[in-house]
Specification:
Blueprint: H1 6-10, H2 13-54, E1 55-61, E2 67-70, H3 72-78, H4 88-95, H5 98-114, E3 118-125, E4 131-144, E5 147-157, H6 159-208, H7 213-237, H8 246-261, E6 265-269, H9 279-300, E7 304-312, E8 315-322, H10 332-348, E9 351-357, E10 363-369
Parallel strand pairs: 6-7
Antiparallel strand pairs: 1-2, 1-5, 3-4, 4-5, 7-8, 8-10, 9-10
């Protein structure tokens, strides 16, 4: 190691220049890093500010004469003029979508009685007829004699976010259907041809080389299993046919598969034909039914599962009901994840998901699509 004194530096201009250049580069690097860090902080602050700007705040006093105050952003989301009077009752009865109204009313009632906060998504219908998806968060901040008397919360329009998520989900489903078709039409057909060739070879070997017959039989058996597995994989990637009655056919196959593979009695009921033109919507309904059935098989100890599809104009209603132990089964975290996945899929197609006890025993999951597609 070489040490330079101040005197030697004075005598070596090149070294002084090198040190100065290095110091300048270090300074520029530090400046760029500080600038980048500041830019990231600024962008994060801007994102938070934009999110806050999209939020509308509200406050509701629940006394003998309920009073509500709303921020200007709430009026913009609802499509109202700031001068118009907006009460909690008018918001629920006049703006919340009819199919979501009972759920919102029940949530508010629980908040009032028990002081339980909520975070729910629902649809609103603006005066111009446009339907928007909103996220409503509420919290009890004051109570009197065990009853909530003041609620504060926020309301946010999440329509664009849900539309982007739906587009991403549709793109993924399209890619899965394409891959499933390729798997069925390409690899599946080649495996089928090999299986037929193996059967012909087994016939020849039985006569010309009997000692090789066990090996050839094992080969044809393996090919038959590979063909079956390829078909199951392709069907799993694209379970709903493109025809309007594809959902009915897929749900019938789902029930049949459960009966074949397990000891659970699974039935599919569809009193009248339910036709869906949008394969993406049909696929999401099928995935919800599939997840509900899987939950019943894995967590509830059910002996019977019933899948019902019905057209109740102007709604399409999918119901999965089992006779298991309901929410008290094991593996609660896994079951909770399944419920969240079903709820997410329902939101993607503008449907609502309700989970509750079955009339006698077990669990009932109901997915209701307001508008027939």
């Amino acid at each position: 190691m070489v040490f330079y004194s101040t005197r030697s530096l004075d005598a070596d201009p090149e070294l002084i220049g090198l040190v100065g250049s290095l110091g300048g580069q270090i300074g520029q690097f530090i400046d760029r890093k500080q600038t980048a860090d500041a830019l990231r902080r600024s962008e994060a602050s801007l994102a938070r500010a934009q999110k806050i700007a999209q939020l509308g705040s509200y406050e509701v006093i629940l006394e003998s004469e309920p009073r509500a105050s709303w921020s200007t952003q709430v009026y913009r989301i609802l499509g109202l003029g700031i001068e118009e009077r907006l009460s909690l009752e008018r918001f629920v009865d006049g703006f919340v979508h009819p199919d979501d109204r009972a759920r919102v009313q029940s949530t508010i009632a629980q908040l009032v009685r028990r002081g339980i906060g909520y975070d729910l998504q629902c649809r609103i219908v603006r005066p111009d007829g446009r339907v928007r998806h909103v996220q409503v968060v509420g919290e009890a901040v004051a109570a009197r004699r065990g009853r909530t008397v003041k609620v504060v919360g926020t309301l946010m329009d999440i329509t664009e976010r849900l539309e982007l998520e739906k587009e991403a989900l549709e793109a993924r489903e399209r890619e899965q259907r394409r891959f499933g078709r390729d798997l069925h039409d390409g690899l599946g057909q080649r495996l089928t041809a090999l299986e037929l060739f193996g059967q012909a070879l087994a016939s020849d070997v039985r006569i010309k080389a009997p000692n090789l017959q066990p090996q050839v039989q094992n080969l044809t058996h393996q090919l038959r299993e590979a063909v079956t597995e390829a078909r199951l994989l392709s069907h799993g990637l694209s379970p709903v046919p493109l025809e309007d009655d594809g959902l009915m056919r897929a749900l019938e196959e789902l029930a049949m598969g459960v009966r074949t593979m397990t000891k659970v009695q699974c039935r599919f009921l569809c009193p009248r034909p339910v036709l869906l033109k949008e394969v993406t919507v049909a696929t999401q309904l099928y995935r919800i039914a599939q997840e509900a059935v899987n939950n019943a098989l894995k967590h509830s100890g059910a002996g019977r599962v019933q899948i019902r599809l019905a057209q109740r104009s102007p709604r399409i209603v999918l119901t999965v009901e089992d006779d298991g132990c309901g929410f008290s089964g094991p593996d609660g975290d896994d079951m909770g994840m399944g419920m969240r996945v079903m709820k997410y899929r329902a939101e993607m197609i503008g449907a609502t998901l309700e989970v509750g006890p079955a009339p006698r025993r077990g669990l009932r999951i109901t997915c209701s699509l307001w508008k027939a597609v």
